[in-house]
Specification:
Layout lengths: L1 H21 L5 H18 L9 E2 L1 H8 L3 H9 L19 E2 H12 L6 H13 L6 H12 L8 H13 L12 H9 L4 E2 L5 H8 L4 E2 L5 E3 L2 H12 L8 H17 L3 H15 L4 E4 L1 H6 L1 H8 L4 E6 L7 H5 L1 H9 L12 H4 L15 H9 L7 E7 H13 L3 H20 L3 E6 L7 H5 E4 L3 E5 L3 H4 L4 E5 L3 H6 L5 H11 L4 H14 L2 E5 L7 H16 L1
Parallel strand pairs: 7-8, 8-9
Antiparallel strand pairs: 1-2, 3-5, 4-5, 6-12, 7-10, 9-13, 10-11, 11-12
Length: 548
Amino acid sequence: MERSRDESISIALERLALTLGESGAVPVPELVRALERAAERLRTKTVSEELPFDLVTQAEASRTVGVSRQAVNQWVRNGVVRSYAGTGSSSRYGPRVSLAEIAIAANRRSRDVPFSSSRRRELLDFLLLIERGSTAPVAREVRHALEDDSYDSHSPEQIRVLGEFVMSSMGLGDQRREFTPDGLRLLSELEPSITVDTSTPFGGLVDSLGVLVRSARGNAGFDSPAVALLALFGGATVGAQYTGGNADVGRAIRAAAREVWNEDWVERLLDAVFHLSELRPSPLTRFTASLTYLDHNRFLRRAQATGVSIAYSRGPGPLLPQRLYGGPILRDLMAGTARPPQAWAFSPEAALDAWPAQLESGANPFRIVNYEYGLLDPEIHGIRRYCFSATDARRGLRAYAGSLSGNDRRRYVKYSVEGLTRTLLLQNIELSAIDSERDFDWWKDHIIRSSQQEILLGLRDERARKVAHALLVSTSLLPEVVEAAHTDGALRDRLRIYVKNLEFDVIEARYRDDARRGVSRVIKTGGVALDATEARALAEREIHDMLA
């Protein structure tokens, strides 16, 4: 009897869907997409019942995250984190823990929350030091944002711009777009909250570094105080490597940072960017290519609060040296030039080639900051799931290697293997590849990085890219995008369906589903530790298979 009842419910639901479509009450494409989203949401609810992918012993978790074994044991005993049954009878296979859950617990107990008074004072000291000359206006604005608790950079236009992106993406196949003409106009008309005069030495420096966004009216600047501080960091690192008067500003910023933080100035300045972004968040931030790479450290530190982040990439740095190091550093490596100790540094000869704003994004010198202080930084807790298009990686690797011969080609392949080996050695990285070009779909192509708190959407359309390389979206803004359609109930329902594509739980469900169905090939699982021999053998196999 119960079985018959289940079948009748199923048939009734099927008939309802058919009736809605056949009567024209709901357009068939809309109905299909709605049912797909509903099925995905139902499937998502079951994910929490599955065993985590990153189960390790308590000892392995303590070593990886950098906390004591006693702390992990106490968290398990007190119910702070769950334990999961092992797969064998010996003590080696005893109860295990999720590496992501241990990272979350460690993060909640170890970070300065939200911004310690001593760190805030140091940042103010740094800003006061550079509040002179051409850096004074930006330093003053950042200091004002830090001191004024009523500072707010949220605008209704930000909601409208994101709404336009979501609505344009509702199409099927060739009809799916990033922005309508009206959406592009709204995006280009967004005014930066902090403006910069590009005719000044500092303005010229940050302009040539490619960190300024512009409005249709010609105003240049930054969308948030944290991004402005990030640009100062960019000037003090890569900007200071160039010659000329504008680069002197970068060296002055670096000198001020050293005066406040001594040799720890890089880490402390990145700390300040993270804390300022927490203190004065911006719901929607336009990013240039340079800012996309510069901000990876802050993103991962914010993602660690919930333990997991997911990134999709067409040109993966861990496999392609030109996208790991950027053009100037790779030039030095290929020439056998001795490298300076700083991760971002390159020779004066390499600096003559081009400034970041003149290079295509794959050769951007801020690429190295993206990996050294972002993806490959072992000090940041959390599992980083990095999924790339194997088709694009193979194409990029073969094209670059094919342009070389003899020792140059062997040197390039060596750097490819070394970069991938180093990535595989990090226990908290999960690396996977999508081998079929068809399976690297539209949404994956746009999701550069995603976490519970925010998502970084890459813009591919050339018209949109003239305005921004990517949009950093706070997930707290998503409900407002739906509610903005309050005058149109049908549009609000459609928006609700498509906004789900930007929510982390749906992105994660898709990521896991791709792994289960074999759409993506997991090269290394997060939480798994490889020794140097294993990592190198795996890296050599992957690189050589791509070049074969």
